[in-house]
Amino acid sequence: MTDTRTDDQRMRVLVNDEEQHAIVPEDFRAPAGWRETGFVGGVDACERWVEEHWPDIRPRSVREAIAATRTGTTGTV
After folding, report:
1. pLDDT tens-digit map of 7-32
2. Which CATH class is domain 11-71?
3. Which of 18, 63, 67, 73 is the most buried (most CB within 10 A)?
4. What's the DSSP call for residue 13?
5. What distance in Å separates the CA atoms of residue 22 and residue 13, rounded to the nearest whole number?
6. Cα distance between residue 66 and residue 55, in whole Å
């Protein structure tokens, strides 16, 4: 699949409860389970923002489960 986005196209960044990020066109309606981050810009700016704010791309529940295992705590993730 070819990426047809251009840097002059206005995009926005969405995030879900697992802290996964998505870059979508500014006029794209966020689907259920996703919310606005408040960041809007060109493709390159959005990609930089995501790289800054999402350094560990594992879902939040996975990160928490691994952290719990390392600390010896148990419980619902």
Report:
1. 679 999 999 999 999 999 999 999 99
2. alpha beta
3. 63
4. E
5. 6
6. 16
